[in-house]
Amino acid sequence: MAKRKGVSGKTHTPKQLDDYANQNNPNNKAYKSRMANEKQQRDNKRVTTFADLDWMCFSKGMYEFD
C-alpha cells in the first residue's frame, strides 16, 4: 500500500484540515511564511557550521587560547 501525503477527515477536525490546507497551498500567507522560516533556518544552520570550525583550523591547538 502506497503512503499518501495528506491528512484524513476521519481523524482530524475541520479546523485541523483547514490549517493543513493553508500551510500547503502556495497562494497562502501561512505557506509563504513557513517556507521563509524553513529557508532562514537552513541558512542559519550553514553559518554556524562554518563559524564553529573556524577557530580550530587557525589556532595553535585545541586547548591553547594565547
Q: State the end-to-end distance.
A: 62 Å
Residue share in β-strands:
under 5%
* H and E string: HH
Shape: elongated
Largest sheet report: none
Record field, number of beta strands: 0
> What is the helix content?
55-70%
Quaternary state of this entry equals single chain
Structural class: mainly alpha
Average pLDDT rating: 76
Rg, Å, rounded: 22 Å
Low-confidence stretches: none
Total of helices: 2
How would you sum up this structure, described in words?
The chain is an all-alpha fold and 66 residues long. It has a domain at 22-53. The protein is built from two helices and no strands. It starts with 13 loop residues before the first helix and ends in a 9-residue tail after the last helix. 0% of the residues are buried.
